């Protein structure tokens, strides 16, 4: 068995062709989607980068691991304390460790651990390739290490390769010789001059007047990214920069797929494509940042092509990224039971917060949570409830954005969160609060 996990930082699902985007940002990713399953309501439980990958790696909510933010105590994983063994639990209960301990050779090409001093992220990997630029790498500085490894090892059995690319993340740094694939493409129709005028009146970091955290300076090293949004030309420049980053990442992902096909192992390789979080580009008045617990930041793509799994299938059920490790557990349950004690198996089931969606992959079953609780603690302090057509957002600290205490959006009618209807919908807000307090 071979597993390739493509982990794309800052990738919002609705900017992929396979998710209905109007621009051709992702032809290679879309081809994989045709051969597998597209998950339409897949969310990171905890945003942004550090909390999200903490949940993915451990299968636990951030409120259990302690990983809910990007600094201070919110960025430190809780220690096990007096019950810690010679090795901690991550040595055999993280996602890569689970696979490693049943015979997979596990490899990551990622700067993530260094970027966030999140050294726990490397637990369970046999090999770690860190390009050393702390997440400022382009795909051409990440993928060649993966290609070199695959050229040597693709035909071997039982490997798990995690490849982490960062091109959609600011600063938008796709090399100039890649050109502008979207120079003559229109932007989504919901953007207009009136929206920009309204957003330029808003306060806070990463708003139309200050795209950076603290100012609106432009960096000559990154000409694809404006310092502020004054007009539609600036907005198009920003969207083009983001979408070109996706297209560049997709271009290099295609090279990985090509090697698997050249080695004649693609058909029998599981391919997982996902992200840590999305990116607001005007939603809630925030641009080029993943700063809230809203639908745009928290919803992430998930595409799975699995040998023996369904093809061209779309799953609508609500799921978390932390459900993936429980899914892998079910898929490899017989191997796990042959390698681990009953004590370990019971401890794993007790520790994990996830549910398995293996039967979605192989049978197309409608597995779904009733609602999702979404967290953001890096830029603001928010917890949200995603249920039915709604997202309800509760703000505890507004990050200087002057958000109201409660916000409610009907995502079916208002996917870009422009019309807060919390005041007009008290009963729906009360229902959401009941879920939040469970």
UniProtKB/TrEMBL annotation:
Transmembrane segments: none
Pfam families: Sulfatase (PF00884)
Sulfatase N-terminal domain location: 3-332
InterPro entries to which the protein is assigned, alphabetical: Alkaline_phosphatase_core_sf, GAG_Ulvan_Degrading_Sulfatases, Sulfatase_N
PANTHER family linked: SULFATASE, SULFATASE N-TERMINAL DOMAIN-CONTAINING PROTEIN
Name of this chain's protein: Arylsulfatase A-like enzyme
